[in-house]
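Weekly sync, protein design subgroup
Attendees: M.S., D.O., the rotation student, P.L. (late)

Item 1: inverse folding check
M.S. brought a backbone from last month's batch and wanted to see whether the design step gives back something sensible before we order anything. D.O. pointed out we never logged the input encoding, so this time it goes straight into the notes. Structure tokens as presented (273 positions):
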């Protein structure tokens, strides 16, 4: 696919409405969401080439990760389909931001060193769309360049809502059980809606999607491990002495295949041959 014949599909209305509430920025900067943020940062800093690398942050939201990547000395361009996200990200030092869709990237072939897909795959319920997004990443990254994608794990809604107690609410449980069954989160549109339209992966399925898109998968990294389900995680992250221990502990199990599904999120890395 070339940039000339790539037509960006429309973002699903309910997804646009969900992220238009502008809550994602705070989610990763406060509370338990900081574990996902810091672990993503930890893994990426080990995978990325030395600065200055040219990075395309696709579906980069409000720029939570683009901000520190630019501060690390990388050349960062962010694409996102949500206008409020683009507006926020454009105000960050060293970050260029514009509207874009992961399935039809307005970028030249082999033009960047790294493509990050830290959100798009779990809002593409249909497998052909996910493979298309990965194929677009392959197209725009240079040969040998890095592609890293985030996915939400199949049992994350079950684990999360058991932890919070919402699983025991008869109004919420059908959504959770349905997502466990086929990986699809279907929003109800009412106060009982837990999330927006989403797809939750079996971690073992992601490398196959990479391969089908023409990428060579290299590794998988569970971000939160079991720590996100343990009581007291907020206070651990608040404690300057405990926080590094928590992050180091998660590194010990991050790529153990039998433990990948415990994390809420997994990063999968690969390269363009």
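Designed sequence read out in the meeting:
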């Amino acid at each position: 696919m070339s940039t000339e014949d790539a037509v960006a599909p429309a973002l699903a209305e309910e997804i646009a409405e969900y992220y238009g509430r502008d809550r994602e920025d705070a989610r990763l900067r406060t509370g338990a969401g900081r574990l996902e943020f810091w672990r993503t940062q930890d893994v990426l800093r080990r995978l990325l080439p030395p600065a200055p690398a040219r990075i395309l942050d696709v579906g980069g939201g409000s720029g939570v990760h683009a901000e520190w990547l630019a501060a690390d000395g990388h050349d960062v361009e962010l694409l996102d389909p949500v206008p409020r996200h683009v507006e926020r990200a454009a105000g960050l030092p060293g970050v260029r931001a514009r509207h874009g869709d992961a399935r039809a990237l307005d970028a030249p072939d082999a033009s960047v060193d790294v493509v990050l897909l830290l959100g798009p795959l779990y809002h593409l319920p249909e497998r052909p769309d996910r493979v298309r997004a990965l194929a677009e990443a392959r197209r725009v990254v240079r040969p040998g360049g890095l592609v890293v994608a985030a996915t939400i794990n199949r049992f994350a809604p079950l684990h999360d809502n058991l932890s919070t107690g919402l699983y025991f609410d008869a109004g919420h449980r059908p959504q959770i059980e349905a997502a466990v069954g086929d990986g699809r989160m279907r929003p109800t549109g009412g106060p009982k809606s837990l999330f927006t339209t989403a797809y939750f992966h079996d971690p073992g399925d992601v490398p196959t999607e990479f391969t089908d898109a023409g990428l060579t998968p290299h590794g998988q990294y569970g971000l939160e491990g079991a720590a996100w389900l343990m009581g007291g995680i907020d206070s651990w992250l608040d404690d300057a002495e405990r926080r590094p221990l928590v992050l180091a502990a998660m590194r010990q199990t991050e790529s153990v295949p039998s433990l990948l599904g415990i994390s809420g999120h997994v990063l999968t890395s690969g390269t363009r041959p």
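Discussion: The CA atoms of residues 78 and 97 lie 5 Å apart. Strands lie at 54-58, 75-80, 95-99, 112-117, 141-152, 184-185, 198-199, 216-222, 265-271.
Action: P.L. to compare against the previous round before Friday.
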